[in-house]
Amino acid sequence: MMLQPVIIAGGSGTRLWPLSRSGFPKQFLALDGAETLFQKACLRCKAISNDIKPTLVVTNEDHRFLAQEQLREIGLTEANLLLESVGRNTAPAMTLAALQAMAEDDDPILFVTPADQTIQDSEAFQAAAKSAVQLAMNNALVVLGVVPTSAHTGYGYIQADGNTVAQFIEKPDLATAEHYLQEGNYYWNAGIFVTKASVWLKALKQFRPDIAIATQNAWSNKTVDHHFIRPNKEAFEAIPAESVDYAVIEHLPNSDITINMVPLDAGWNDLGSWDAVWETASTDNEGNALTGDVLLVDSSNNYVHASSRVVGLVGVKDIVVVETPDAVLVADKERSQDVKRIVEQLKADGRKESDLHRKVCRPWGWYDSIDEGERFKVKRIQVAPGASLSLQKHFQRAEHWIVVKGTAEVTCGDNVLTLTENQSTYIPLGEIHRLSNPGKTPLEIIEVQSGAYLGEDDIVRFQDKYGR
């Protein structure tokens, strides 16, 4: 049977602020190497079987170009993206994937996994995955149960007798979790599910027909733009938000639908907080996990991530320090779950640091706001080869562009000119303009904006190949 990888890449990862933000969430971060968590999840699934369909990714509309670029980097250019206009949790996401998979194949086996987890033992993961696929071929819905390494109170648990699931249990208190650890037949629920698309749809119709009907309606009225698949926006936003577990999985024991579990002992971690990142990272002799330009004196068991400048620690232990160009986090490692409260404060105050980095990715490249003050802003802009910004104008600002690398094609009113390194041009306030990169190497410019208002919303687009 054909295997259909399904990567659930929603969520904002607020506990890993300031690296993870709603505009660039944790699944798209490379925390321990060149590949991001999202890319690693895609590659893990691709390695399960030779009979495999192009990857299906369920993600937010706002992250479509970010996900597509990361897929391109690992060679998965045939992947299809199911785009959610709003988050509706994992049950509608998995249902969209099942409907799409059955439209392209008779009844493939879905291998559904979150995009923001890490696996340290790839061989053990592949063995567990293949066992799950074999069980799913017999019309079972299979969950991978992580062999627990501690009495963790932040995960739901699965009680199992061999491959048979007895029950699913909500997050326990510490004493109960310790009992589960001693018993030995309780596993963490990792949110990784394997089943035929038809089995999932049957189970959903049985236990949550409201979600099944509403999701079918949104998918039936979808639009398709090459690899972007968009459920009908109004219909999708009317779907009840619910997790796979609450909607279906917890109802399956003792039902007419077989629910099995395969143990997973592969160094799994959901990286739900900075202390979890520290647990999976390489450390020095003093237990420090370090990324970037970090200097230590008499310090131990710390997690330090320096993005843009030197960070020094003296005489401290068990803390988290995460530095980015526009924010610095310092936290007690044991309190790192509470980082989300900082994000809540930022959102309540209407501050952009909860959503965007200083460096912002765009489908054509990126920009970095390197300085700003009264009536001016300075950006460093990179445009990918062959890419271009929209044809646009601004009502409240003028712009000066200086090329520092590559070749720029500039449209300014009725004029089109070519600029190379050390050349510049001026875009008057209110003039229609566009910046393009006709070359084969990245284009970099410095943009100096001047005017009474310099917000990103002062823009009118006349042509945009990215559909914004």
Question: What global shape is seen?
Answer: globular
State the helical fraction. 10-25%
Number of self-contained structural domains: 3
The CATH topology of the largest domain corresponds to Spore Coat Polysaccharide Biosynthesis Protein SpsA, Chain A
What is the arithmetic mean of pLDDT?
95
Q: N- to C-terminal separation?
A: 39 Å
Query: Can you tell me the CATH class of the largest domain?
Result: Alpha Beta
Question: Secondary structure elements and their pairing?
Answer:
Blueprint: E1 3-9, H1 37-46, E2 56-60, H2 64-73, E3 80-84, H3 90-104, E4 109-114, E5 118-119, H4 122-136, E6 141-146, E7 157-161, E8 164-169, H5 174-183, E9 186-196, H6 197-207, H7 209-220, E10 223-225, E11 228-230, H8 233-237, H9 244-247, E12 259-264, E13 268-269, H10 274-280, E14 289-291, E15 294-297, E16 303-306, E17 311-314, E18 319-324, E19 327-332, H11 339-348, E20 359-362, E21 365-373, E22 376-383, E23 391-393, E24 397-405, E25 408-412, E26 415-419, E27 424-427, E28 433-436, E29 443-451, E30 460-463
Parallel strand pairs: 1-2, 1-4, 2-3, 3-11, 6-12, 14-16, 15-17, 16-18
Antiparallel strand pairs: 4-9, 5-13, 6-9, 7-8, 7-9, 10-11, 18-19, 20-21, 21-22, 22-29, 23-30, 24-27, 24-29, 25-26, 25-28
Helix pairs in contact: 3-6, 3-7, 6-7
Concise description?
The protein contains eleven helices and 30 strands. With 468 residues, the protein is α/β, with parallel strands linked by helices. Strand 25 (408-412) and strand 26 (415-419) form a beta hairpin.
